[in-house]
Amino acid sequence: MQKYADVNRDSGVDSFQNNPTSIKVLFKGGSKIYVYTYSNPGQIHVEKMKKLALSGDGLNSYINKYVRKNYDHIE
Fold first, then answer.
1. 58: alpha, beta or left, given left = phi > 0 and alpha = psi -120 to 50?
2. pLDDT at 1
3. pLDDT at res. 5
4. Gap between the Cα atoms of 22 and 34, Å rounded
5. What does the pLDDT read at residue 67?
6. CB contact set of 26 (below 8 Å; sequence gap of 6+)
7. What is the mean pLDDT of each successive set of 10 residues along the chain, which is 75 residues long?
8. CA-to-CA distance for 22 and 74, rounded, in angstroms?
9. How far apart are CA 55 and CA 13, in angstroms?
């Protein structure tokens, strides 16, 4: 997992892991890793989330606005 930069210091995301067809997200204060895949919530969302994760800004807001609990599974 890679530490999320959180450039504005206002995110609920702690760290992430980009994979070819998925992204894994660990939220601050949590122990569960949420896995978002091309299957759920879909390729368009996953690719946008991967870009936001790398930029260090906007990932938590995007998840809250567009995917909410529409993850594939929890690890």
1. left
2. 97
3. 97
4. 10
5. 97
6. 1, 13, 14, 15, 16, 32, 33, 34
7. 96 98 97 98 98 98 96 98
8. 13
9. 13
64 DSSP assignment: I
Query: pTM of the predicted model, to two decimals?
Result: 0.95
Which residues contact residue 36 at a Cβ distance below 8 angstroms, ignoring those fewer than 6 apart?
Answer: 22, 23, 24, 25, 45, 46, 49, 67, 70, 71, 72
Interacting residues of 41 by C-beta distance below 8 A, sequence separation 6+: 66, 67, 70, 71, 72
User: What's the token pair of residue 33?
Assistant: 């890793």
Report the alpha-carbon distance of residue 51 to residue 29 in Å, rounded: 23
Residues 28 and 16 sit within 8 Å (Cβ to Cβ): no
On whether the CB atoms of residues 17 and 2 are closer than 8 A, the answer is: yes
